[in-house]
Structures are given as C-alpha cells and as structure tokens.
Amino acid sequence: MYQVLYRKWRPRTFSDVSGQPHVTTALKNELRTGRLAHAYLFTGSRGTGKTSCAKILAKAVNCLSLHDGDPCNECDVCRGIDSGAILDVVEIDAASNNGVDSIRELREEVSFTPAVARYRVYIIDEVHMLSNGAFNALLKTLEEPPAHVIFILATTEVHKLPATILSRCQRFDFSRIPPEDIAARIQYIAGEERFTITDDAALLLARMSDGALRDALSLLDQCLSRSRELTADTVAEAAGIAGREHLYELSAAVREQNPGAALTVIDRLHAASADMERLCVELIDFYRHLMILRSVPQGGDLVVASSAELERLRQEAEQYELAAILHGLESLQKTLERLRGGASRRVEMETALLRLCTPELDVSPAALLRRITALERAVRGGAAALPVSETLKAPAAESTVPPAEPAAEAENPPPGEAPPPPESSAGDGAAEQPFPQWGEVLEALAQTCPPLHGVLLGSAASLRGDFLLIRTNSDLFKALVSRDGNKAHLTAALRGVTGRSYRIGVKNAAPEGATARAASPDPLADFIRSSRELGVEVEVK
Question: Which of 131, 181, 234, 446 could disulfide-link 19, Cβ–Cβ 3.0 to 4.6 Å?
C-alpha cells in the first residue's frame, strides 16, 4: 500500500530533523549527559517537527545503543517502538481524550513499571484541548511522576495552557522551518524517490508551505500525481496559484475607478459558482503582495509566486499608490468578516468593490487618505491645477444664487419637452420655499449616480421660482456636478420626482470661515477649500 511522503520520510533521528537545531542540539546534549527532565513541552506551528521529535526522544531514552544522542533504530527496543509492539510508549490525542476520566486512567497507569523499556513515555498531542478539570487532575502527577515515567506534551497553542502546567515542564519552542531547509529536504527526497524537481519549483513549494515541512511534502505528493518532472509551472498549477487573471481584472477596475468593470467580473465569477469568501481571501493575499512589492524594493523573497508571476505583480504594484493598496486591504478584511455572517455574499463583495472603485463613497480613514494622496499627486504634477477666476476669489453672500457659474447653469430641456409652467419663471425675486421632495431625489440619485448622491448626503434644498437651491458646503459637489454628465443625472432625478425641470443653484449652508472649516465633516473638502484660498482650483478624479 502506498504511503504518503510525509509519513514515509518522517525523521527517525534528531539529525534528520530540519530547521530546529536549537531544539535537537539541546535534547542530544541531555541524552548524552543523562540529565533528563520528567516533563517536556514542545510548542510551535503545525508541521515543524514537534510530534516527530517527541517520538525520537521516546526512542532515545529507551535505546540500548545510543549514538551521540540519536537512537540507533536497530536494537529491539527501537524497532519495537517503531512497530508499536512495545506498549511502554503511549501516544494520547488530547482532542478526543480531554476529560477528567481519561486523565484519571492515566494516573492509575503511571504507577506500573515498564514491561520492556527503561521508561514509560506518555506523548500527549494537542494538550491545549484538555479541559480545566483534566488539567487539574494532571497537575500533581506531572509535578512528581514516578522515576520511570516521562511526559512529553505537544501543542500549537501554548497560550491556552495554564501557568501551572507551563511551570512544571521544560519548554522547547519550534520555529517555522526556513524555506531553504525545506527545499533542501525536498531535493533529498527527490533523489531517493527517483523523480526530478527544479530548484525554483522546490523553493516555490517551500514558500507556499509557510514554514511547515509536512505541508510541503503533502503538496509535493499532489504535484507528483501530475508529473515526475516538476517545474515551477507544474507546482503553480497543482497549488491553484495559476490562472488568476480575474484578480488582475479586479485590480485594474479599482485602479481605474471603474465600478462597472468590477461588477461585471463579480457577475461572471458568480455565474461560474465561485465562492465569494475564497475570492475575498485571494484578493487580500493579492493586495498583500502588492503592499510588499510597493514597500520593500527587494521583497521577492516575501512573496510566494513564480518568477514570471512575480514580475507581473511588480508591474501591477508600480501603478498603485500605497494608500490605495492599504485602503483595499482594510476594506477587504472587514468584508471577509461580514461575508461569514451576511445573508448574501455576492452583495457584500459587490459593495466592497464599489467602495474601492469609488472611494468618495467610503468615509473610512483609509479611503480619505487614498483620496488626499491622489489630490496631492495631482497638485504636484500640475495636471489638475487651474487658475481661479475672480468670481471664485470673491466671497459669495449666503443668499446669492450663482446662475453664471457652470454648476448653476440650467440644462436646456431636450427637444420636444414641454417648457416649464409659467410660475417657474419667477426669477430671483420670488419667495424661497422649502422643497419637501429632496429626499426622494437623493434616493433616485443613489441608483443613477452614486458619487453625486454621496456628496449630497446631509444637504437640503429649497425652491425660488424656477431655481432649485441646494444648501451644501461640499466643494466636491461643485466639482462633480460639472463633469461626466453628473448634472444631467441630477436634473433627470428632479424630473422623475416632480415632473418639472429646474435650474440648479448652490447655496452655502453656513458662512465661510474658520468656524465652518472646523466643523466640516469631510477632511477632503477642507483640503480643496484650502487650495482655493491659495489660488488653485482642484479637480477630483
């Protein structure tokens, strides 16, 4: 029967253990000098050799012919422990034997002397799974066990162990195995198993395993089911990191602030039964790679990717500002939390990407930083800086209607549309009246023009003849209403709600000045206002 590689090539001596010299050297010295502890605690992440070292130590303390601290693996005791014939070495899974009764049975067994070996060794794996009662039942035995008993505890979550347990054990921390050591072990196994693997492929496997040799060998088994001649492309295909074109499409949509393209990709992936939670995790990993490559000049060692994929990631990172990458990471992390408890995963992903593509809809600090960074870049480059007209430099009175500004110009009604009723031509001298349907207009704008709806949140409106006066201090509104047909969306929303056409005017909600600036809820609006005071007109893109 075929035996998987991580079981077949489990280390049998301390010298075979990869990447843990600080642990193996100390244990071999204790065995050579005979200074053995009665309880050991092995901690560290998965696949780093904790259980393997526990089994090697159990053999070594009982070996009849110890070789420089390593078990000989040839004597009757070593062979009996390997085959399971000697019952003096007991391995307990604390995940399934975590009750008080299991520990009470163990306490009764430790009083019996070993049948064949020198020591009875109890290996308790995943010891953090024991209940509080089981820990309390183990304390006295763990502190003063019989002279013929050794306990070896192994766990991946040492912070869950009581301090009373920690103080009774000799602790060894297993670190993540360096990629170079994992790659060297893979090359050794390849020579013994008679298959070929390139250095790039072995290093890619090592980086993907995140310091766990067992994970690397499991993935190596999966790759060998495809081919006996492994390259980096074979590994990437087997691991599922190839064919990620949709991630670059979504990234381009975010960079170009094109929500339509992003929603189209989501729709295509949803139709193909893609898991939205996995997509979110992939995007988080993708933006992490961009963050590293944008921040660290030589960050290729920190990114798990083939050489061709790494070069493409570098090119993508160069087109980003770091603030935009951090905004993406923060938004996607919050989205991942909502995905696990939300009613519609597709809607959560669509909402997240809509905010990434339209940062003015997001009021988080990361989104504001991204927008300010874009404005600073535009001002430095001079592409968005235009001289301010004299009419903009002069402070406007609160009740002044600016029909001569672009934002206050009335759009000509389309051909064939009925002219406004006679009462709509009252002019500037007409009495100002409240406009109670403004909330319905904003709801319509939310469907047709989300950016304009975002900057108008919290505003109010009133009627003066055929003018609709919008009370707002948002400079973003003045910038957005005159570009990309946004004004047409506003007038269309007005016609849809009222059935009439109005000219648009802007009315300051509060006097300009330091007090108004201090109370402004939008830091980006403060930045634009300060720029205008310096004689620069800033256009938001």
Answer: 181
